[in-house]
Amino acid sequence: MHRKSLEIDQRLGQLEGVAHGYANLGSIYRERGDLGSAREHWIQSRDLFAKIGMPHMVAKVESWLDGLPDT
Questions:
Q1: How far apart are CA 61 and CA 43, in angstroms?
Q2: How far apart are CA 11 and CA 48, in angstroms?
Q3: Is the torsion defined by CA of 40, 42, 45, 47 positive or negative?
Q4: Would you say 35 and 69 are in contact if contact means Cβ atoms under 8 Å apart?
Q5: Is the dihedral of CA 57, 67, 30, 42 positive or negative?
Q6: Is the pLDDT of residue 71 over 80?
Q7: Considering the entire predicted model, what is its pTM?
Q8: 59: domain range?
Q9: Considering the chain, what percentage of its residues have pLDDT values greater than 90?
Q10: Is 57 within 8 Å of 38 (Cβ atoms)?
Q11: Do 68 and 38 contact (CB within 8 A), yes or no?
């Protein structure tokens, strides 16, 4: 469902929704133990949140990234 939501937000140009979609997918990958995919999705999320001017979300996603072990 998160992938479908991400696709819809991308199609509609809803950048905040896209950023949240990447964050949600990153969390799922983290739970599954796929840390590389989690990192990739969270980086995309962080960069989009920065682009649209949401520093509180940038900080939140950066804290998740900081919590990942080095891969």
A1: 8
A2: 15
A3: negative
A4: yes
A5: positive
A6: no
A7: 0.92
A8: 2-67
A9: 96
A10: no
A11: yes
- Label residues 26-47 b or e (16+ Cβ within 10 Å = b): bbebbeeeeeeebbebbebbbe
Can you give the length of the chain in residues? 71
Type of residue found at 31: E
| pLDDT tens track for 24-55 | 999 999 999 999 999 999 999 999 999 999 99
Task: State how far the Cα of 65 lies from the Cα of 8, in Å rounded to an integer.
Answer: 25
Total domain count, the chain: 1
Distance CA 28, CA 48 (A): 19
What pLDDT does residue 70 have? 78
CA distance 59 to 4: 26
**Unique residue bearing structure tokens 């080095």:** 70
Which is it for the CA torsion 18, 53, 49, 57, positive or negative?
negative
